[in-house]
Amino acid sequence: MRRMAWMVLLALLAATPALGASANKSTYRGWESLAISHGLIEVQIVPQIGGRVIQFKLGDHEFLWVNPQPAGKLPSPSGLGPKGEWLNHGGDRLWPAPQGWVGGDQWPGPPDAVLDGGAHTAAIMPTGADVGGVVLDSQKDSRSGIQFTRSVCVIEGAAHVGFNSTMKNIDTKPRRWDIWQVTQLNACNRAGEGYNKEIRCWSPIDPASIYPRGYCEMFGLVDNSSFSVDPATRMFSANYKRIVGKFGLGNSAGWVAVVDGTAGYVFVERFTHFPDKKYPDQASVEFWMNGAGQFVCGPEIVEAKDDPVETPYRIESEVLSPFAGLRPGESCTFHLEWSAARIGGDFPVLACTPVGVTCGPFRTKAASVRWVLLDSVGKEIGELAPTQITK
Fold first, then answer.
1. pLDDT grade, residue 299 (50/70/90)?
2. CA terminus-to-terminus distance, the chain
3. Taking the model in full, what pTM does it have?
4. Is 292 helix (H, G, I), strand (E, B) or coil?
5. Which of 91, 159, 358, 380 could tie 54 with a disulfide, CB 3.0–4.6 Å?
């Protein structure tokens, strides 16, 4: 018997000869950017719009949502819109958590003029021929008392992107925050109008979760039909249905996956879970579904309209580090990895390792047996019939 599993490799080797990993000046949708790439993947970074990773590509497939309205434009020095509004360019960025509006130990953004909207400095890392990378530094934020630094690296021949995100206390008093990486993914129907109905998020639920259902409702409807849990596997899933909502959950497995079933691609984030540390809302993973409906944001009730311009087709896969109490001058670092592969359709993700994702259950299949006779150095010198085999 042999054991079979439906697994798709994430650490894919390039189909073309190795081109080497590199980081170079580039352009993306009208912005001056830094591109990290090799023959398989490409990462585009725009330091001037909040240090965003604005796009991640596997081959020709783009995973991240990019706002077409401000594409190619730089914000004013304030980092905000003309009326102080949030300029959401899309892509991926770092925020501090917890989010809130009732005290100095909560982050009231977005909008945020410094960490989210302010220009970052950037430098290409001298990492060698097989690794390409960029280091980004945010401005120093006096309100939160922190500064972000993160390195972004790709390695030749693998569909992996590595992030080391560092938060430093630049204040004169202790500060307590966590690092919150927010990744906005494209949920539009790329073959026509409307949204992609085969976008699904997958996350294992921490067996030690304090929530009866394994997750908590953070924004939107309590009975949002976009979210569900398999009672047998304790796997959380979210199907994009254009209903606004956000749910958080503890994830001790250290991975989340988003499948674009229409295009047949999977996007994976891998991280380390710290069971002995505290997380905001007891959640190390959060999913935001951008859609129509109402939700409470601080003191206000927000009405999200079913308008693709005002409410674009996108979802957010968000991973959080545990809280870090930092004295003045101290810092902490959180490591996260992206991976991607083509799986060919709308399939679940049941498990994930550094090698690949499992999209189907293990099963067994009968296999023929051939008995051979080997010499003392392992060379085959003959074949035996089943009747010649004795115990």
1. confident
2. 19
3. 0.88
4. strand
5. 91
